[in-house]
Structure formats: structure tokens, C-alpha cells
């Protein structure tokens, strides 16, 4: 692989930026159409994110545009590249899969742009694709080596047995997973996720990411799942103690640095609490000196999960401050402790009630919720490098101008 792209390749790729702004989504939709003609490749992807209204084609169109716009300054894409590599590692994407994507992408560019997709343009995009692909392949190889060689590590899929299932609210359950071989597990970074392969009982192979909702312990993982969508509904309706699931190693770039010295604010909506509970358990166990705010929003007490557990952690750790918002406090039933605030979490409330001049904010929840809070915090003067977020689905830049 060359150290950098040729200047003429860079010029040709940058020349396609206006076309990508206008036709990027059509190109990525067509690309997936070509790609999924191969069933083996199709099964690598979460199909719920595909289709005309799916989030994956939109996210990929944004990523391709960002690549073209920053092709002279790829350092600006470092965080995005890391996130993609982590996602790929969770799905067990291998070097032999990349040529299928290259062929589908170039064919889609040709299909959508027609005569404007000259041989020179297609050649330039082919070179640009493989330049970035080789960066990803190299990083993914590093991730695979790391997760296979650390204590409790493994490569590829590993069978885990559901040890127990615990209801957490009317719509959320926790599943405790232990390796079928009885061995240890990787001590994940608080905030990371597992990729789970579901199959059997007439179910087509489904791959889904579920955040680990417990602190690292070397023995088991806990995933806490809301009943929505085909895969999560299957878990709620069919998975029980003794069910075997195939699981790939923990992945993800959204996680707590246990050595963090400045205060942290954990902000979540709905089932977005899962990485926050993992972080909070870790703080309570390993960093009780760290000033920590846990701010969670739920519709009401019936759907509020793990509230008693969180308040118990706060009672044992004087530096943990818990605040719970219910959008509908009049039906606040089913959760010990109830709520502290009625309404929705806002960036203004966070700015006034947490140390916004020095804290790092970790955000997880529905995309509109995240965008409002992330943009609001930024506009209130919080540095973007202190606003970290994770949401369920393809990566997006919530703070893009």
C-alpha cells in the first residue's frame, strides 16, 4: 500500500463532491442492492438498517462524502475510522469481504452518475476505496489479535449460555451470559457492546449489537434489552436459561477511561442506560472518588429499568449523584424511588446542574434526544471533545456543522 494517494487521484475524487452531495444516498442504496445479491455477504449486515428508509445507506452516504471532502486530511476522519473498524470487528468482517463492497460501490457510482462516471473517475474511486480499506483491514487485524490474546479472549464466534433472565421493567429484560466452555471472558471497557448472532427456530441469521450493562468481571456479561424489533422480541419471547447464543468479543470506541480525573456526567434516555450502568458500576467499584452524575430519562416508572440498582450504587458511593426524569410523572409506578424531575432532560438543565466547565459528558439514547443534548451542550460552551455519545444504529456525527 502506498503511503498516500497520488495527487491526480485526490483531485478526481474531490471533483465528485458536488455529485456525492446530490446523489450520495442513491449511490449507497444502489450499492447495497448489488451487494446483497450475494446471500453470504447480505447475512453479514443488520438488515433492519437497510432499505429505502434505512439508516445504513444514509450513514454510508455521509461517510463517503466526508471521505471525499477530507481526502487530503484523513486525520480528520480518525475517530470515524476507529468506530467503523470496531463495528466491523464485532461483525467479524474479514479482508476477503472487501472486494465485494468495492465492486458494488463502483458499479453503483456508474449506475447513478452515468456518463459522468468516466473511466478516470472510477479508477480514482477504486484507488481511494482500497486506500481506506487497507487502513481498516490493518486496524481490524490489530483488534482481532488483541481480543484473541488477552485473558479470556477469543476470535470469531463463541457459544455463550444464558444463565438467567431478569425482568427490569415492563419492556426491558437483562440476560446473563456465561461461556459454554466454562472459561473466562475478556474484561470489557465499560460502555462497549457485544455482537450476538441469533439463529434457529425458523429465524434467519440475525446479528445485533447489545451493550454490556455490567462492570467488567472476567466471568460473565449482562445485556439489557428492550423488546422492540425482530431480534430483541425473539430474545424476550424465546430465550431462556439454557439458550445458547453465538457471541463475538466486546467492541466499540464509546467507553469510560477508568483513569479519568475530571468529573463525568452519564446521560441516557430509555434503554440507552445500558452503557451508563456499566460505567456506573465500574465507578462504584474502582473509582468511588470520581465525581459522577447519572441523569436518566424515561417515559414513566413502568418502563424505567434498573432504577433501584442505580440508587443502591449511589447510596454506597457518596460521589455519585442520581437524577431521574419522567416525561409522564403522573403514571410513575413500578420503580422504587420514582423520579426527581418531571419532563425531559435538556442541555440547559445539564449546563446549570452539572460541572459543565470541566466534566466529560457520555450520552446514549434515541437519536433526536442525543442530537438535542449534544448540540445544546456544544452551544452552551462545552468543548466537543468532552461530549461523547453512542446510539443504536449506524454511526453519525451529531455535532457536524
Automatic annotation (TrEMBL):
Its EC number is 1.14.12.17. GO terms for molecular function: dioxygenase activity. PROSITE patterns: FAD_FR (PS51384), GLOBIN (PS01033). It comes from the Bacteria. Residues 4-141 form the Globin domain. InterPro entries: FAD-bd_FR_type, FNR_nucleotide-bd, Globin, Globin-like_sf, Globin/Proto, OxRdtase_FAD/NAD-bd, Riboflavin_synthase-like_b-brl. It catalyses: 2 nitric oxide + NADH + 2 O2 = 2 nitrate + NAD(+) + H(+); 2 nitric oxide + NADPH + 2 O2 = 2 nitrate + NADP(+) + H(+). Residues 155-257 form the FAD-binding FR-type domain. Keywords: Detoxification, Dioxygenase, Heme, Iron, Metal-binding, NAD, Oxidoreductase, Oxygen transport, Transport. The keyword Ribosomal protein does not apply. NCBIfam families: PRK13289.1 (NF009805). Belongs to the globin family. In the C-terminal section; belongs to the flavoprotein pyridine nucleotide cytochrome reductase family. This is nitric oxide dioxygenase. It comes from Filomicrobium insigne.
Amino acid at each position: 500500500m502506498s503511503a498516500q494517494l497520488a495527487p491526480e487521484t485526490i483531485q478526481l475524487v474531490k471533483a465528485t463532491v458536488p455529485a456525492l452531495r446530490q446523489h450520495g444516498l442513491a449511490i449507497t442504496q444502489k450499492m447495497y442492492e448489488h451487494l446483497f445479491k450475494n446471500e453470504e455477504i447480505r447475512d453479514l449486515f443488520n438488515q433492519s438498517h437497510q432499505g429505502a428508509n434505512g439508516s445504513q445507506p444514509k450513514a454510508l452516504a455521509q461517510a463517503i462524502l466526508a471521505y471525499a471532502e477530507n481526502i487530503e486530511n484523513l486525520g480528520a476522519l480518525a475517530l470515524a475510522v476507529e468506530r467503523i473498524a470496531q463495528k466491523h470487528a464485532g461483525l467479524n468482517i474479514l479482508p476477503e469481504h472487501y472486494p465485494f463492497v468495492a465492486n458494488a460501490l463502483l458499479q453503483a457510482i456508474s449506475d447513478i452518475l452515468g456518463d459522468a462516471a468516466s473511466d478516470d473517475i472510477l479508477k480514482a474511486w477504486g484507488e481511494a476505496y482500497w486506500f481506506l480499506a487497507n487502513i481498516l483491514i490493518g486496524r481490524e487485524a490489530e483488534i482481532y489479535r488483541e481480543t484473541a490474546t488477552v485473558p479470556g479472549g477469543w476470535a470469531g464466534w463463541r457459544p455463550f449460555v444464558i444463565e438467567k433472565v431478569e425482568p427490569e421493567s415492563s419492556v426491558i429484560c437483562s440476560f446473563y451470559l456465561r461461556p459454554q466452555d466454562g472459561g473466562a471472558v475478556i474484561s470489557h471497557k465499560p460502555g462497549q457492546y457485544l455482537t450476538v448472532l441469533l439463529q434457529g427456530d425458523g429465524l434467519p441469521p440475525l446479528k445485533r449489537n447489545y451493550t454490556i450493562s455490567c462492570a467488567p468481571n472476567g466471568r460473565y456479561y449482562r445485556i439489557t434489552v428492550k423488546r422492540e424489533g425482530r431480534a430483541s422480541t425473539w430474545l424476550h419471547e424465546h430465550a431462556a436459561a439454557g439458550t445458547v447464543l453465538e457471541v463475538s468479543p466486546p467492541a466499540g470506541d464509546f467507553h469510560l477511561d477508568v483513569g479519568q480525573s475530571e468529573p463525568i456526567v452519564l446521560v441516557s434516555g430509555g434503554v440507552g442506560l445500558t452503557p451508563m450502568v456499566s460505567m456506573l458500576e465500574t465507578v462504584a467499584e474502582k473509582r468511588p472518588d470520581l465525581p459522577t452524575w447519572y441523569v436518566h430519562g424515561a417515559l414513566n416508572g413502568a418502563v424505567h429499568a434498573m432504577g433501584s440498582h442505580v440508587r443502591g450504587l449511589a447510596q454506597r458511593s457518596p460521589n455519585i449523584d442520581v437524577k431521574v426524569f419522567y416525561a409522564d410523572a403522573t403514571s410513575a409506578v413500578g420503580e422504587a424511588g420514582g423520579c426527581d424531575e418531571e419532563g425531559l432532560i435538556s442541555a440547559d438543565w445539564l449546563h446549570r446542574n452539572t460541572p459543565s466547565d470541566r466534566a466529560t459528558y457520555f450520552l446514549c439514547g434515541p437519536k433526536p434526544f442525543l442530537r438535542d443534548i449534544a448540540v445544546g451542550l456544544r452551544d452552551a460552551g462545552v468543548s466537543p471533545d468532552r461530549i461523547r455519545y453512542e446510539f443504536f444504529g449506524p454511526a453519525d456525527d451529531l455535532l457536524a456543522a
